[in-house]
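Local shape tokens:
==================
===
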Amino acid sequence: MKVLIVTSGSMGDVAPYTGLGVRLREAGHEVAMATHSPFRGTVERVGLGFEPLPGDLRATLAHAIGGLNARALARQFVLARPLIASLGAGIVSAVESVKPSVLLLSTMVAPLGYQVADAYGIRRAGVFLQPVYPTREFGSVLMGGRSFGPWGNLAVGWSAFKAAESLYAGPIRELRGSLGLPRVALRALRGSQEWEGPTFHGFSPAVLRRPGDWPSALRIAGYWWPAVDPGWRAPAELEAFLADGPAPVFIGFGSMAPGQGERLGEIAVAAARRAGVRAILQAGWSGLTAGAAQAAGTPQAAGAARVAGTPQAAGAAQVAGTARDAGTARDGGDVLSIGEVPHEWLFSRVAAVVHHAGAGTAAAGLRAGVPAVPVPVLADQPFWARRLHELGVAARPIPMPALSVDALAAALRRVTENPHYAARAQAMSARVGAEDGAAPIVDWIG
């Protein structure tokens, strides 16, 4: 069968689906992914077809406001509206190009993808990385997972769910009109479309148990691990740094905080040194590097030397939007800056991970069995940060606006010096590593 996986967002919203796509290809299907153009190389390097979707989340995230208050949530909705409005035509274009018999839709694209599937008569399923459907058993993802009690969770969950759903009302109406579908109220569409196909959730039931009050069409499958680029090789500078002393900590914020690399680099380097740990800083979209500390007046950065990066790391510079992401840079012997490196390779070699708690990065940390320091910003990140802490594998989350040298240094000492965190992380790694999250989807497609 021809399978088209459609997803929108940052690298964490793309990478898990590459692993799912490779598994489906190994099962005998022809697989393509439709997502944003900066991720073409990520998709094509693992042998999957690529179709472009309009939009680039980098511009959106540059104006995002962190936090869980009404202002921050409203700001997220305002920023997401133009991207959502552009996705419908992109999905149609991808479907007409690939002509799939099965359509797999991520959380952000699903409400639009359902309309396209109906118009073209395509079998489809949701493949979500977040538990967005309301439940009594835990707090809403959009509200950071904070619990208000069973009935409060349900009320808040439905309010947040409907607020997010309202973003799609106009785009769905326009898309259905362009496809020749009848005009139907959003509520009626939800009632008829959501249960026509299953929705698989790509996280472990050991991390978040399936709620008993969810409809039967909602399933928790297990994690979908990113596919490994067969041509990737670790930079020699990174290999040498890892071998040159105790296991370092990893510090990286993925797609978060574009343009804040200098400020974050200064905090990260100072906190690592105060905690007495070596550190690896990954540039991501913020441009985070140890070299940023030089601009902030850190004398150890003065002798930092840069080496040429791998072709894959150079590709990461296009995603991150900064040339600094193209190589590695050593700072005073105890800090190394890197570009794009597979988390599944690196995380098992570090003592702890400091990250934004996006779904994909949080999963990579669990898989590697290393404790975390979550620094969430927005969207589902506060939810996963809270969950990691509840599982005992992470320090108490530090919201990005509250990140400081003191707070980060204290959290680093906590997770590296208290063996409880490492023990819990290793136990969770054994559980999630024994699961096969792709198998239920392979079985459903047949």
Remarks:
- Residues 70-98 form the longest helix (29 residues).
- Residues 139 and 147 are 4 Å apart (CA to CA).
